[in-house]
Amino acid sequence: MQIQVAERLQHTEEYYFSKKLREIEELNQSGEKVINLGIGSPDLPPHPAVIETLHEYASLPHTHAYQNYRGILPLRQAIADWYDRYYGVSLDAHKNVLPLIGSKEGIVHICMTYLAEGDEALFPNPGYPAYSAAIRLSGATGIPYNLNPENDWLPDLDALAKTDLSRVKLMWLNYPHMPTGASAKDSFFRDVVAFAKQHHILLCHDNPYSFILNEHPKSLMSVDGAMDVAIELNSLSKSANMAGWRIGMLVAAEERINEIIRFKSNMDSGMFLPLHMAAAKALSLGPQWYSELNHIYRNRRKKVYQILDALGCTYDKAQVGLFMWAKIPESYSNGYALSDKVLQQSRVFITPGGIFGSAGMGYIRVSLCAPESVLDEAYKRIS
Ligand SMILES: Cc1ncc(COP(=O)(O)O)c(C=O)c1O
Predict the structure, then answer these.
(1) Angle between helix 103-114 and 129-138 (nearest 10)
(2) Which positions ≥6 away from 262 have C-beta within 8 Å?
(3) If you take atom 14 of ligand 1, which residue's CA is the nearest one?
(4) Per DSSP, what are the bridge partners of residue 248?
(5) Running along the chain, 383 residues long, what does each successive block of 10 average in pLDDT?
(6) Which of 181, 279, 326, 380 has the fewest CB atoms inside 10 Å of its own CB, making it the most exposed?
(7) What lines the ligand 1 site, CB under 6 Å?
(8) How far is the CA of 153 from the centre of ligand 1 (A)?
């Protein structure tokens, strides 16, 4: 019997890293273990108080039932307090906050809530591949907008305004930007909110990297009027070293949350209560948590500079976030060629920039999620 996948999956492949990890595992069977500098999965643990909170609540008898679809109030309040404390954004925990099972699921929920066949949605090239994949899954058409270093990796809103935006319902945006490490100025955030208002586009800002190697964490929601046109996703994966816990959040106007919950509540159920409580604990950590984390990443970044220099790459030291984005030397046709060579010859995996879109072809991305000793070993193997 031949079983066909649904039309919506015809152009959707397994996620690149999901395939690549299998290939790396096979290589590991046949010799020296590959050093994986590909994925932005923090290798450090969460704060001990977060683990303690998880233990404490998991050992209670009444914490194991289904939970509220909208997340329990102490977590929503902790999210609102975190936004107030670090971004200067005032949120109503009852109305403007929706905890998520990681922000990646939020990307799909948003696309499924607002997009359908015939609609268009803008997404960054290069950019996180989940945006275009989720747009495709919704049946809508994705329209990439190109980012380049000449424009500080920011979209050219004037050029976009000259295109036909009549079918565009939604725009994905992500600053600090992954993979380029670019950050956006306040004036850009103001301009993009005005652009969205003018063209009746729902802005979806994905903000998981604002605490990593970034002096001034920013939220798009701090712009006047942003709540009328924007949704922001955020995450504990990177800033609290909790990637595997799957805790993210969505911040928006009450109407948006009510619309999105119509999809989400039919797809999953509330998170485990001890996870809720531990996440609330993580959000209550003071600035010292972030400065200690960034001290470690800053030292690692120096090692990554050495690796990139050994590969003959060029890069901007003003980048923020969990990666270094670097231009490859002209002797390689593209980032895939360089990545494959380094994997085969040095058994180090670095991400080819092309997986983030055609505008990333001439680049590679190196993760800071490895201890200095591993980065030293990678440097030794490569050089
Ligand atoms: C830009 C961007 N958004 C979202 C995510 C997903 O984060 P989460 O772990 O919260 O699903 C990632 C993860 O790598 C990312 O790079």
Answers:
(1) 30
(2) 113
(3) 40
(4) 100, 235
(5) 84 76 88 92 97 98 93 97 98 98 96 98 97 96 97 98 98 98 97 98 98 96 98 98 97 98 94 96 98 98 98 97 98 96 95 96 98 98 95
(6) 380
(7) 40, 102-104, 128, 174, 178, 206, 208, 235, 237, 243, 248
(8) 19
